[in-house]
Write a structure and sequence with these properties.
globular; homodimer; 7 helices; 12 strands; seven-stranded antiparallel beta sheet; 269 residues; alpha+beta
């Protein structure tokens, strides 16, 4: 899978590109089921919301889950990202954000590269985020909000927010967010389960609480051009990875195969 | 202005009808400007968010503001509502909800009729809500969420929530909300400033916090068929009105006239 010239131009101008239904419903459903199995695990990679009960995010699932190992090397994701950063990539961060029905809390306005620079000493924003929707994302269940065109400004001044949620984050102040939104607007890309959002590591984004009765599970792959790897190893290895080996994509049917294997096994049981 | 047969059928089936751009941008802008003048007033009808600073809701503005007096008798609102409740109506409640940029807090899942029955002894749900958008409402700025078809079930069991926000509300539990959403879905009608949402007093609704940098000001008119007037006067008169006189609509240009007057006056100054 390759992005078209129009998509590359859109990404350059707006800071993101939305690709509806990149994965089939069956592929997304299998990943979703696996996500909930992981959220139920008691392990240090699985963080809870402030309440301490419901999962907020699960790190590094590609290192301990076969479906996520395959997603992390999927050609429908790796191919386009190689185009966008113009080179081979390694996995800098991998997380599954739960944003659970009723309980999913806010993510404040931030740039991911802000954290990667401040905490991990990543030299340049030659890195990307990919959001893979594992539930339908609607206006109702806490969609990701973007400030288009904000990626053009590099790393912006941020403060370290240790209070709002269970997850520490370098966040932008209201004055800056308002200024950027007046210039480029504020959008909430929504779409069916299996859709993909690719966005620049400097794009300012946030997401509101999910007060709806529907979950909004989204996987985030953060991919970095290999020569731009992080220089500082302050955060846990399962938060900011240190394996800079270029990712070799698997065949396109790597997830579909797994869906078929599971269906066959379930039928035999 | 009259609703079509298709709109009446949609309202009956879904519990709401969305009417885009009922008011012009100029009419909506004038009302919006007036809303912010009111939010800045120190009077008992203007309630603040829990923080105590930013306005949450302003009651009864139709009794102390000329633009809102006119909106409360506007034929584009009163005509359709008379069709929907099959009779003349009086103003049961009138409020402007601020849902301010960054600070606007949640409204939990509830039916308005639940409160009107429990607190005000309104005999039947022969009453309606009209939401008039004074800002563009998008997925990003805390849109109203509906559970379609939930209006068919009458008043549902509710608990009195005095904790979550500054405004006491009879709210539904998660189990009920989930059950209703699985049956009829969960939608977030969005549209430009000047649009109107008419919804049944038994329709279950909520709205998330507004974390965006854009305000989301919405006026709510709650209109009740005159013979169905409330029987109990427990709440303040400016929250649950006691004037059951049937509303006589003004001419269609009543707000446009005021826009023109203001423009003329400003030009002369």
């Amino acid at each position: 899978m390759k992005l078209t010239a129009a998509q590359l131009k859109e990404f350059d101008h707006e800071g993101y590109v939305f690709l509806p239904s990149v994965f089939s419903r069956a592929e997304a459903d299998m990943l979703n089921e696996e996500a909930h199995r992981i959220f139920a695990m008691q392990r240090e990679e699985v963080w809870r919301e402030s309440s301490g009960v419901v999962a907020r995010t699960a790190f590094a699932a590609h290192t301990y889950s076969e479906p996520y190992r395959r997603l992390g090397r999927h050609p429908r994701l790796i191919g386009p990202v190689e185009q966008l950063v113009d080179g081979k990539v390694y996995m800098h961060q991998f997380k599954i954000n739960a944003k659970a029905a009723f309980d999913g809390e806010i993510w404040q306005w931030h740039q991911d590269y802000g954290t990667w620079k401040a905490d991990d000493e990543m030299p340049e924003p030659r890195a990307m985020n990919i959001a893979v929707f594992l539930d339908d994302v609607t206006a109702a269940n806490g969609p990701l909000l973007f400030l288009p065109q904000s990626h053009k400004l590099g790393a912006l001044d941020a403060g370290h927010d240790l209070q709002t949620t269970s997850y520490p984050l370098w966040t932008l102040d209201r004055e800056m967010v308002t200024k950027l939104a007046k210039r480029g607007g504020c959008v909430a890309p929504t779409g069916p389960s299996g859709s993909v959002l690719m966005f620049h590591s400097c794009l300012v984004h946030a997401s509101p609480p999910n007060i709806s009765p529907f979950d909004r599970t989204v996987v985030y792959l953060s991919l970095c051009e290999t020569s731009n790897h992080i220089r500082r190893f302050k955060r846990k290895e399962w938060i900011a990875h240190r394996d800079f080996t270029p990712i070799e994509p698997l065949p396109d049917d790597c997830l579909a195969d797994l869906v078929r294997d599971r269906t066959t096994r379930q039928a035999a049981e």
